[in-house]
Write a structure and sequence with these properties.
Length: 161
């Protein structure tokens, strides 16, 4: 039964993803790198980690949606459908809010309610992180991945003078 529910969600995602890019990502341009070029970045860089992510999962870059894949790396969210819904909850907790995100959360929660505890945990994790959902990660591809990830995961750093 879960397989059928996931197939339905995949169908809905396939139809809405193109509309999302067209209407919500109008002004955004696709990145100037492809999966192969990302693999030529320095070993510990965000670019290289993203290239390895694409290679490991057999994914290809979707124009104007590249940041989404970086979000997987930064947050540690998997790529199963329940993980995708959890990542939307995490992004909501991080401050992102738009109709597509809310639609994914509502539909995902209704179709896969057995993961609700995981979704709430992801939401709280998003709240605990520095807001990153609006960052331009293409400009950060050369940065050390672990440093970037650690920076995002430390919401409030205490500074003593």
């Amino acid at each position: 039964m879960k397989k059928l529910r996931v197939q339905f969600l995949l169908f809905v995602y396939g139809k809405t993803q193109k509309l999302y890019r067209k209407y919500f990502k109008k002004k955004k341009r696709q990145w100037q790198f492809n999966e192969q070029q990302l693999l030529s970045f320095r070993e510990d860089s965000l670019g290289r980690k993203l290239g390895e992510f694409y290679k490991r999962y057999g994914f290809t870059m979707i124009p104007k949606m590249e940041n989404h894949d970086v979000h997987h790396l930064i947050t540690g969210c998997g790529t199963n459908f329940e993980d995708e819904i959890a990542m939307q909850y995490l992004l909501l907790g991080n401050g992102k809010l738009n109709a597509h995100l809310l639609g994914a959360i509502v539909l995902g929660t209704l179709i896969l309610p057995e993961y609700f505890k995981m979704y709430i945990k992801a939401f709280k994790k998003g709240q605990s992180m520095r807001p990153f959902y609006q960052w331009d990660f293409e400009a950060l591809l050369w940065q050390d991945f672990e440093h970037l990830k650690n920076f995002i995961q430390q919401k409030n750093t205490i500074t003593y003078y």
